Prior knowledge:
Distance between the termini: 40 Å
Structural class: alpha+beta
Number of strands: 5
Shape: elongated
Largest sheet: 3 strands, antiparallel
Number of helices: 4
Helix content: 25-40%
Order of helices and strands: EEHHHEEHE
Amino acid sequence: MANIPLKGSERAAVQGAQPLGPADPTERLEVTILVRRRARQDLATRVSAIASGRAPGPFLSRDEFAKRHGADPADFAAVRAFAAAHGLAVEQEDVARRTVVLSGTVSAFNCGKCPMPAAATAAARVPFCCPPIWLISSRPS
C-alpha cells in the first residue's frame, strides 16, 4: 500500500515546542481520521441556497444527510485495509461524521517508512504513520 501524504494534513508545532525524545513504543493511542465527503459540490450548493435565503429543497434527516454527504464506503474500506496492514484496530466508524477511530501502539503507528529528519524538527509535524511519534513539550526549557 502506498504511503501518500495528504495535502493540508500537516500541522505546525506550538511556538517554542521542543522534542523530548521518542514516545514509548508500547504506549497505546487513538487517532481519529476524517475522510472525504461525498457529493461535496451538492452540499456547497445547498449551503449557499440556505445562506442566501433560498429554499434548499426538502429537509434532510440525519440518515439521508449521511447517505448523500457522509463518508464514501470505499474510503472506510481503504482505512480498514491500512489499519489491518499496520496492526491497528478500527474502534469506531461514523458515516455521517466521516470519521474512523483507529487504536494501536506507538510502534504500530510508527510504520518506519519515513526517516526522522535531521534536527528532529519534524517532531512538530506528525503526519499519519510518518515520521515516528515523538514526545513534544511546549513548555519553555
